[in-house]
Amino acid sequence: MKVMAFNGSPRKNWNTATLLEHALEGAREAGAEVELVHLYPLDFKGCASCFACKRIGREEIGVCALKDELRPVLERVRAADALLLGTPVYYGCESACTRAFIERLQFPYLNYADYSKPHFPRKIATGLVYTMNVPEGLLERLGYPASFERTRANLARHFGSCELLLATNTSQYDDYDKYEAGFDKQDKARHRETQFPEDCRRARELGARLAQGYRP
Ligand SMILES: Cc1cc2nc3c(=O)[nH]c(=O)nc-3n(C[C@H](O)[C@H](O)[C@H](O)COP(=O)(O)O)c2cc1C
């Protein structure tokens, strides 16, 4: 059992990465082999719309034709038993880097001839972690749940299943006195001390579930 996680934040040790590390710790404790891939340092772009992955008579099914630094990562995905994507919310959706990754991850497995039969060779469990500045109470008003659900459902459709984990009201930096901000500093600090450890605990549990493999 191999669980691969992907950090779609440019920061390698902040909210998103921390949650992914806890998730992978949970997966490791449950007996899985784990790998964390930081997406930002990789030189890659989103789908080039070349449609090589849709050509009749192509040599390989489910393979993106682009030859860049994402290619070996996508090759390892083919052998993975569970995937976990983590992203900060940027302007109400995934970071640009995460979106580029999702296009490249999913499109080769999209079966235009029969949407109900993706080209990914088996069903696996996936997870999707979002971290965001806004407090939980604002999510509906901002339309975030619908945006998250669209991405979650797409992952489930391509790979088998997908579970969502949201971490709200994250701290954007260590010291709120150093940056312009209309945020309630004390509330941020309180949230960091009480809620974020709880988010990490939920991430650990998610990782353990991913390590159990696909369940319909
Ligand atoms: C360019 C940019 C856009 C952002 N847009 C939003 C947003 O629309 N909604 C939100 O709740 N937080 C937004 N944030 C805050 C981040 O989502 C939040 O701080 C997140 O936890 C950062 O993850 P990280 O610590 O892993 O980098 C934005 C941050 C940046 C840098």
TrEMBL record:
It comes from the Bacteria. Residues 1-131 form the NADPH-dependent FMN reductase-like domain. Pfam families: FMN_red. Keywords: Flavoprotein, FMN. Coiled coil: none annotated. InterPro entries: Flavoprotein-like_sf, FMN_Rdtase-like_dom, ISF_SsuE-like. The keyword Flavoprotein applies. The keyword Flavoprotein applies. One of its GO terms (molecular function) is oxidoreductase activity. This is Flavodoxin. It comes from Pseudodesulfovibrio indicus. The lineage of its organism: Bacteria, Pseudomonadati, Thermodesulfobacteriota, Desulfovibrionia, Desulfovibrionales.
